[in-house]
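[step 3/7] fold_predict: job queued, chain A
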Amino acid sequence: MGVSVVLTPTTRSQRDRLTRMGLLFFLAALPVAAVLVLIVNWPVAIGYVVVQTGGLLFAVRQQHTAALKLDTRGVQFEPGNFVLRAEWADIHEVAEVTLPSGPTQALILEKSALRWTHTPQVRAQVIQRGWDRIIPLDEFESDWRRGKVGDALREHRPDLL
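[step 4/7] structure written:
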């Protein structure tokens, strides 16, 4: 694996995320829509819900797409607001963890691999929640053991499989 491999979230992972966010945006618009029905009328309320939900979903799609980079030196995870970079030797185990998006298989690191954050507040949050030692895998390959992640682990850290 002399060349680095860059993976982005699977289509299914991205679709699931957009569905969850769309439902959240829709539900958040309903209280305002109820007030608009009382003050103005139904068409205005429905228009508000459609515009707010559609606009926010458009904004979510414009966000940075997460990336997982694998090379001979190690692994780099870039979810958008921070960057983790770990050498192969720094990976302690592969285990299931629960993130805000749900349970996932992840690389668990020996020590913090935090290299960059968007703001000091993001740095504090990432460290406090322990995300500075977790690199999720399922988001990038649903069957990562048989894909490029598994190939890289077999080459550099076969003891983890």
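[step 5/7] annotate
The chain has a mean pLDDT of 91.
The first helix runs from residue 11 to 39.
exit 0
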